Here is the input.
Amino acid sequence: MVTTYTTISSPIGELLLTSDGSSLTGLHMAPFDPPVDGERDESVFTDVIGQLNEYFGGTRKSFDVPLSASGTPFQRRVWAGLQEIPYGETISYGELARWVGSPRAVRAVGRANGANPIAVIVPCHRVIGANGTLTGYGGGLDRKAKLLALEGITL
Here is the structure.
């Protein structure tokens, strides 16, 4: 299967969007490498680009695009849990672990959170440390802080 991709500019830098032709499979922050076997085609991403622009413009609080993230069953459970965190709210890794039914697996939840292939739309930026501070973010803590500030959260 050939991956379709495009890149877009955003307030948190350039983003790489990937698709399997029917679902969004990735949203990555620069620096990144376009898929080697991919075809560049922005037309596949019209809806998601529009929704991202609305989100970054402050008028969208949730996304409605088909997603297809590759991962283990545990990772997919964590990513589904991330999508339940309301806009403008944060939870700790421990809370997320409880949400997904694995209260003792806080570190594994953290690793799954870090492996999230669809940043922003699957809001891993809404997970913070138990003490209420910013902790780890694949896109960098500055981007995490910007995303949270966009949603009205300052830490």
